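Researcher: Checking consistency across runs. Here is Erythronate-4-phosphate dehydrogenase again:
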Amino acid sequence: MKIYFDENMPFAKEFFTELCLLHSDAGEKGELIAFSGRTLTAEQVADADVLLVRSITQVNEELLHLNTKLSFVGSATIGTDHIDLEYLERRNVTFHSAPGCNAISVAEYVLSALVVLAERYLINLADLTVGIVGGGNTGTRLSEKLQALSINYKICDPILEQKQAEGNTTDERTYSSLTEVLACNVISLHVPKVEGGQHPTYQLINAKNLALLRDDQILISACRGDVIDNHALLALKESGHGLKVVLDVWQGEPDVLAALIPFTEIATAHIAGYSLEGKARGSEMLYQALCQQLAVEPVYQLTNFLPSASIPMVEINAEFNQILLNQLVKMVYDVRRDDAIFRQQLFIQGFDSLRKNYPIRREFSAVEVTLLPNAFSDVPHRLGFSKKSN
C-alpha cells in the first residue's frame, strides 16, 4: 500500500507507517510518501492507494486522472471546498474529512486576539457582545469559551436554524439574524466557503454589509479568505473607518492584498487552526477512518505522541479576573507573535512558507491548572485548561 500525505500533517509517520507495511499485497512494497500540498501533481500520485491532504491541495480529476488505484482520500481539515466530491463518488473512492479537528485551536486564536485588543484599547471583555457567524464546530467551541467567561454572544446560522425549525436536530440554541450579529461589538466569522445556493458565504461580508459596521466594532475572520471582500474592506479602511480588523485568512491565498495589511490590528497567515493538537487531531481522525476502511482496530491515539508543554503546570492563588485571563492566555498562546512574524517575513519567506514553518503552538489543554484555596473561580478549567488528575 502506498500512502501519500501532506508534509504538514503532524505525526503522519507515527500513525500510518504500520498500516502501509501490514496492508500491502504480496510482493508490493509499502510506502509512506510526503509531498508539498501546493505543488502536488498528477504524476506524483499516479500510484497512490491512499491520499491524505490539507486544504491547499485541490483534489479533482485533473490531479487524479493518471491514478487507477486510489481507494481512499482524506482531508485533515474541516472544509471540503478543495475536494471534488462528485468526482470521487463517481470513482467509488471513499472520502473522509476531519470536522472539528482544529475548532478548539481557532476558538483560542479568537480569544487571544480579544485579550490582546482588550489590553490595547482598555476594553472590558465583560461589556462585549460577540456575534458569531457560523454555529458549527468552531462557532460552538468559541461560544463555550465565551460562556465560561460570562461574555454575551449571538450566533447566526440560517442552515442550523432551519434544521431546528424543521425538528431535525436536538440543537436548542437561539439563533440571530445576520443583521443582529453584524451589530455586535465583535463579529467573528466561522463559516465554510459556499458559492451559490440559498445561503452563500462567498463575499458574505461585502461592501453592503461593511457599510453597516460602526467605528467601535471588531471584525475577526478565521475561516476562509473569500468570505470577506478584501478590496471592499480596504476601501472602507482607506476612507478612515475605525473598524478594528483581525485577519487570519485572505482572499486569493497565497497571494495577499498587501495594501490591506497596515489597516489590520492583527494579521496572520491562515494559522488560527495550526495548534499542534489541532493539526494532529486531523491526522488522528484520518487514521481512525482508514483503519475502519481496512477493517482493523486502531492501535494509536493522539496522546501516544503529544509532547509535554514547555510550561506544563500552573498554580493560581487569586480570584480570576481579566488581568489573570490576559496572563494565562498569553502564556499558552500570544497571537502577537504570529502577527509579528507575518508582518516581518511574509514578503521574505512567502505565505506558504510561513505556514509550513509555523512554530509549535499548544492548546490550553496542554497546561494543567491547579486552583489553590484563594482562587474562587473554576473559569480556567471551563476555558479548557486541564485539571490535575486524582
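Researcher: Does this match what you'd expect to see?
Model: One thing to look at in this run: The chain is about 35% helix and 15% strand.
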